[in-house]
Amino acid sequence: MCQFCGVDPAFAAYFDDPADTNNGAEEQQQQQQTEVTGASNGDAPAPNFFRLKPTNKRYQAGGRITTQQLTTFGSSLSTTSRVIMGHHGQAYNNAIRRWSKCAVKRALAVVMVTSAEDVRKTIIMCESHGLPFVVKGGGHSPGGASSIENGIVIDLSLMTETFVKADEKQVVAGGGALASHVIKAAAEYGLACVTGSTSHVGIGGLMLHGGYGYLTGEYGYNFPSLAVDNIVAAEVVTAKGQIVWASKDENPDLYWCIRGAGNKFGVVTKFIIQAHPVASSVWGGSITYSGSQVKEVVEALNTWFAKHNVKAAAAVALGKGADGKAGFTVLPFYDGPEEDAKNNFEPLLKLTPTAQNTSSMPYWKINTLSDEPNLYAGVPIRFASANIKPQLDVDHIRTALERLDQLYAEEPNASGTGSLILMVQPDGVMKHKRTDMAFGWRDDHFDVGIAAVFTDRNLEDKMVAWAQDFGEYLSSRGDSYRLYANHSDFNGPSAREYGINYMELSKLKQKWDPDNRFAKL
Ligand SMILES: Cc1cc2nc3c(=O)[nH]c(=O)nc-3n(C[C@H](O)[C@H](O)[C@H](O)COP(=O)(O)OP(=O)(O)OC[C@H]3O[C@@H](n4cnc5c(N)ncnc54)[C@H](O)[C@@H]3O)c2cc1C
Prior knowledge:
- This protein is α+β, with helices and mostly antiparallel strands.
- The protein folds into three domains: about 10-155, Uridine Diphospho-n-acetylenolpyruvylglucosamine Reductase, domain 2, CATH 3.30.43.10; about 160-280 and about 500-510, 2-Layer Sandwich (Uridine Diphospho-n-acetylenolpyruvylglucosamine Reductase, domain 3), CATH 3.30.465.10; about 280-500, Vanillyl-alcohol Oxidase, Chain A, domain 3 (3-Layer(aba) Sandwich).
- It has helices at about 25-40, 65-75, 90-95, 115-130, 180-185, 205-210, 215-220, 250-260, 295-305, 340-345, 345-350, 365, 395-410, 460-475, 485-490, 495-500, 500-510, and strands at about 80-85, 110, 135, 150-155, 160-165, 170-175, 190, 230-235, 245, 265-275, 275, 280-290, 310-320, 325-335, 355-360, 380-390, 420-425, 445-455.
- Mean pLDDT is about 90; it is low at about 1-60.
- The protein has 17 helices and 18 strands.
- The protein binds flavin-adenine dinucleotide (FAD).
- Its cofactor is FAD.
- It comes from Circinella minor.
- Belongs to the oxygen-dependent FAD-linked oxidoreductase family.
């Protein structure tokens, strides 16, 4: 009887595989092979909990485990953890749900872990049964980097415990924490951490692979400025099932790797993040302009940016406006009082927007303004990566708007498509050398995320191609080689996601994950 739902797994139709008639012989052979391989790798012998004789012959195609074994395995984990399988109905559907509908994949099982030890056991179980696995933090990768068909999801969503070490101004957060957990915990101490501009994104993906946010410019002035730069230490479960710390003093090479390429080197079960003081009230919101104002808006953005005020940042969204044409929504941010903010943003505020909704608010709140209800976008979305070197060029942006208009006209199903240019002062990003950590894009370019949003799933291939093409166009005024992994969605090529650090990463991959148990480089 399943410990989770009371259903007898033997009747779980989802796992039935009529083609399988080998009575478990294949699995036993697989187990033997795994033991041999494990021994030759010098791994410690695997614990007994998964060395279970198959009790039925229902295997998932591509997998080597039975529902019974998964159920028994689940009972070896912490009492708060769960193993969710297809026969769990709605609980399973919830467990494989993702921010983008494109990322929903039918996993063999979702292991909702609650400790590093649970993660370790799951990795060893997967190794023993020859099962592929992925790690899920906040589940926001639109292309499905945290979901898998017929494999195991190590789901960190229950590992969100977050607290502040006030003396050190550090936030300790579980590997599955969302930006909102970190921001809210820090806010109680007048502190903030660099996270992205949306509060329900997982810090796992965001911090380990870069992490541009409103505070990137300001913190860069005195402190490290990308989210990844603020990882002081991390507890990591490795491909071999070891639980280790990675910091400048412990396993410094692993620390180097996870800061930029975390999903390829281990499961981070705990982050120690440097926090910094933030004003009790910041200013922001949204200001909308029509596409016909492109010249004045781009010139105003350039004038504003040239003031080089590190307290200010702006996310500039290009997307469909109320008039049905591509236009601008500027999300301004200022870490300070409204009066100073309005002075700073004067070049933009003196234009005539089509809509404006700005005010002072606590820092945690500004990160919720772009949130979706219930953490899910509810539609298929794919991402692409681009970048633009300051200053913005009127003709370049005008053509970008025209390309969007052309798409809206051709594909009414893709009218949510757009892109976001994050304008932050680059001082702090460039404070690090390119080789200080795996994340090596230490330049003065604006990061640009492209979101292809469509209602018809059949458009996915076409929209991915469109988004990449649009990204190449935008990056023609930037570094056209550079890909930001959080926006290229880990689809590579890795050499472009890691640039100068790719060779060193390849070498260290051989040390920490020679069998590519985690995402490939
Ligand atoms: C609405 C939205 C807003 C965004 N805003 C910003 C922004 O302002 N700035 C910015 O820089 N980016 C932004 N992004 C991009 C975002 O940083 C990436 O999508 C990020 O990878 C999502 O992380 P996640 O943990 O939610 O996703 P997941 O899909 O869970 O994970 C993404 C990858 O990271 C791995 N991973 C996650 N957690 C861990 C962990 N603890 N240990 C090891 N590997 C792990 C997964 O295996 C997967 O490969 C945004 C994305 C969305 C959808």
